[in-house]
Amino acid sequence: MTDTATRDTSAADGPPPQRSYAKMAADESREDYSLRYAPHSFRRWSPTMVASTALGGIAYLADFAIGASIVFTYGFTSGLASILCAATIIFVTGIPIARACATYGLDMDLVTRGAGFGYFGSTLTSLIYASFTFIFFALEGSIMAQAMHQAVGLPVEAGYLITTLIVIPIVFRGMGALAKVQAWTQPIWLIGMVLPFVVLAFEAPDAWGAFASFGGTEGAGSGFSWVAFGLGTGVALSLIAQIGEQADYLRFMPAKTEQNKRRWNLAVLAAGPGWVIIGAAKQLGGALLAFVALEAVGKTHALEPIAPQIEALKPWLGSFALPAAALFVIVSQIKINVTNAYSGSLSWSNFFSRITHRHPGRVWYIFLNLAIALTLMEMNMFAALNKLLGFYSNVGIAWIVAVAADLVINKRMGWSPPYIEFKRAYLYAVNPAGFGSMVIASVVSILAFFGLFGEYAEAFSTFIAAGLSVVLCPLIAWATKGKYYLARPNPVNGPHVEVPDVTATHACGVCETAYELPDIADCPVQSGPICSLCCSLDAECGDVCRTSPSSAAVFMPMPTVRAD
Predict the structure, then answer these.
(1) Burial class of residue 10 in the structure, from the number of CB atoms within 10 Å of its CB (0-12 exposed, 13-18 middle, 19+ buried)
(2) 525 C-beta neighbours (distance < 10 Å), count
(3) CA-based nearest residue to 374, from 171, 560, 134, 195
(4) What is the pTM (predicted TM-score) of this model?
(5) What DSSP letter does each residue of 424-471 carry, written as one string?
(6) Which of 66, 85, 92, 425 has the fewest beta carbons under 10 Å from its own?
(7) For residue 531, which of 84, 105, 33, 14 has the smallest C-alpha distance?
(8) 262 pLDDT tier (thresholds 50, 70, 90)
(9) Is pLDDT above 50 for 556?
């Protein structure tokens, strides 16, 4: 039948009604299994290729601006401690999430569903993640517009529009196009990233010593301050949701085997939490470049990555420093903003498919994400960088830490299923373990952020969010005895099955398309298999499978299940 969410009910008798997806939604070369499990047949890239593509997305220069802003505001000593502390937290929480996404072929939203949030509980985190993508798209787009203004005098308002439009053709084409763009632009990016620091090493060898005693531009001083440390860490922790963008690539990691397990483990570690090692180095490097350029360009321009880049290159490139720096900035921002736009389209797709029971295709949500980002750019969000990112951190870290706590603690203690269940047919609408802990942690930390509990609580609001999430998620799971993870047993537990083979395909009884076993549920309404997306879009079934006394597997034998 016709559209993406409704079904033909004209025939009261006869076979079950069918659904056919709109052209964009049905084309998996563009859709990239945006709301589904990524099947083994689609994971055709090597671990190295997936990792390289994922790391290509961290070419962004927001790290330069964030690092410079932290050090200028709080001084070198407190700024350094903040950046390193945030990087440690991001790395530790990113390990279990990256491994789960790569193992199960799921994006961040689908992992969140099964890791303590429930089917509708994760809609809120879809919005949190979507906001991450458009906030950082706007930030990166602002940096690119600044570069075009410096290079050719283009008004920044026009630059905002160009930076928005330029990514659309790439993101439309999906993972294949993104992989090519990241590979082709990597050499230019690497040269542009390293060259300014090589020039500084020869032309200004004393810069690092002077930088280490820098007291900032706001009178913070060069010594350590606990309040400055807490506030700076909060800003740096705004990047914690970056693991979601890494997961959007990691879900295409091939299955781990005896032959590739070493490369697989290294690739997942590097492309998952490993991004933050490069990110922290970029924050410190960006702060150094801004410090060296401060006297020449002033504070405002020193915080814009293009100006310090030009100043660093001038001793060697002279008049060519401007075009060289502009080229580097533009390439860097294209590399990251195709990822921001791509991940945003996935997140919005997940959100609206559950709220509206419609799915016109991932590509249409690109325009929604870009429209919001363009609005933020025109509102000059760059000027309120620290406050905006500091506020976002409280919600982002509450979410990510709750998911990590479920994967590391709840699953090992047996309070959570040993695999990730993401399908509506088996999930409660809301699981209080993850969702409840995130909401409580977010509310308390935001109140602290706005000064309700005093100066130190305000400075350490992100630590409050993380602490509450890591304690409450296991506590609620224990108190409820894991009751709200599965609404009914799933006869096939992801990749942990011995019989039957998870790569075997079954035709969905609604759209009649064949999908691999982990994407299939048994549906009593259909009296047969249904794919996860058709199940999500069904607005008329009344969730019979979850509310009836029992729902046996109707299309396959019960397999033997083993947990890692």
Answers:
(1) exposed
(2) 17
(3) 134
(4) 0.86
(5) GGG--S--IIIIIHHHHHHHHHHHHHTTTT-HHHHHTHHHHHHHHHHH
(6) 92
(7) 33
(8) very high
(9) no
**What is the token pair recorded at 292?**
């060296």
Who's near 204: CB < 8 A, 6+ residues apart?
A: 292
pLDDT computed for residue 179 by the predictor: 79
CB 392 within 8 A of CB 460: no
Paired tokens of 43: 């994971």
Amino acid at 439: V
- Cis amide leading into 196 (omega within 30): no
Could you give the count of Cα atoms lying within 13 Å of 539 in the half-sphere of its Cβ? 14
Nearest one of 272, 280, 265, 207 to 245, comparing CA atoms: 272
Tokens of 83: 């950046």
**Of 427, 428, 416, nearest to 474 (Cα)?**
416
Record the tokens describing residue 13, joined without a space.
């008798």
DSSP one-letter code for 407: I
Q: How far apart are the C-alpha atoms of 451 and 371, rounded to whole Å?
A: 33
Sign of the Cα torsion 112, 140, 189, 86 reads negative
- DSSP H or E segment with residue 199: helix 175-203
Helix (H) or strand (E) holding 528: strand 528-531
DSSP 3-15: SSS------SSSS
Question: What does the CA dihedral 432, 434, 437, 441 come to, rounded to 10 degrees?
Answer: -140
